[in-house]
Structure prediction request, 550 residues.
Amino acid sequence: MEDKKLNFIEEIVKNDLESGAVKEIITRFPPEPNGYLHIGHAKAICLDFGIAREFGGKCNLRFDDTNPTKEDTEYVDSIKEDVEWLGFKWNKLCYASDYFDQFYAWAEELIEKGLAYVDDQSYEEIKQGRGTLKTPGVNSPFRDRSVTENMDLFHRMAAGEFEEGQKVLRAKIDMASNNMNFRDPIIYRILKRAHHRTGSKWNVYPMYDFAHGFEDAIEGVTHSICTLEFEDHRPLYNWFIDHVSVPHKPHQYEFARLNLTYTLMSKRKLLELVSLGIVDGWDDPRMPTICGYRRRGYTPASLRRFTQEIGVAKSDSLVEVELMQHILREELNKTSTRAMCVKHPLKVTLTNWDDDFIDTFVAVNNPEDAEAGTHEIHIGKTVYIEREDFMEDPVKGFFRLAPGREVRLKYAYVIKCDEVVKDEAGNVVELLCSCDMATRGGDTPDGRKIKGTLHWVSGCDAVPVTLNIYDHLFTLKNMADMEEGRDYKDYLNPNSLVVENALAEPMLATAKPLDKFQFLRHGYFCCDKTSTKEKPVFNLTVGLKDSWKK
Prediction:
């Protein structure tokens, strides 16, 4: 840790420990279970858990489940899975709903101190009464209710006597404050909805701003780390803590959220993409969700390193998605199994090959890893090459197969194109080639130069596979630059998914979901969850070309 340059939050933590301001670091990752986590949450996870790990502290996983209208156990389960997949383990598993009784008691304490009141105004009237950034708000006509009346009404709200929207409990602070969050914020509303954990026990639920700091206080959180949009909420966070009898006073710190090119990270809009069927669920590999990246073939280590590379800053910026791809590509180059897959097959018949002869070669699984092992590949009379690897009238600089030209089949033999077979429309449908049997293994004993080496699959055992070729979901580089009056759906990329049929080595039929491969010359692919031995499916994770520049 001595050699590492600390970010500003790590500096704060380090100084707090050295000064004795805190004895043990306790952080928390507090998602609301109303959707699946995205790459922005991955940054927060790595920061919250990473700081606790780095400084010998603890990090809780806490669900801010204060709104039963949007939350579900499906999201709870997915969040736990994502955190563990990223490589972290929480100290305590907590829920805001664990503390509902205590929140209610603290609301009563504010009422008793004359710092909270029941308001009968509608949400629209309350919104109008708050004023603007340039004009002060107007006191509610119910602001001066007595403590006795407020307590009675609040209890009756909790008992279910009133309907949703009829009454709310507001903190009594300052309707003229320059900070809009201080203008008598709503702290409890009536919601007659079943909660995923507490059932129908409650008819009133606390607002996030009211509950958040109290959750930190109950859990002994020392450093409550939030994104920058909560900076203006910090005074309110402190106000609630300062005005009731909390067991501990936490402190909130803010950092810049992650903004990624060609990416949208609004939970509401991501949910809309799913519900409208624009994408194939939350784990669609085009989605910026953690489970989407997992299905696409990203690794926990690559996402952790990405969050380290982009760092922790105090101001927002836009990060190039190519950086994330560059980091992943570096890892996959070291870890993925090499395989041959032909996307647009062109039949090649080896005219001097015995009809029943099958030759066997040993292919290296990964040249970057000596312990990765090998696998067998077979070749018979018929092979398939990429259609783009043949040109009848080759242009200058084309070193692949052409009439009268020799190329090397990777691992196997040197072949020469002797004849081109066409259909009635003049399309090339087959190449008749002679095989130099003295070049087994691809070597040329006479020392002649062979410039082109092609990947291929054998007609004797190649398997049909489906390839999902993914691109950016959106065409706009910075989704914050949408033109006025346009919707984010106007920028959907019509070519974000192209499905192709291909031929591949037979070992790919036995691949398991999330197995990762480098398809020679095509890119890195991951076996999809829908893949079967009869119908193998692979997702393009990232191409071979690295377009990111440091």
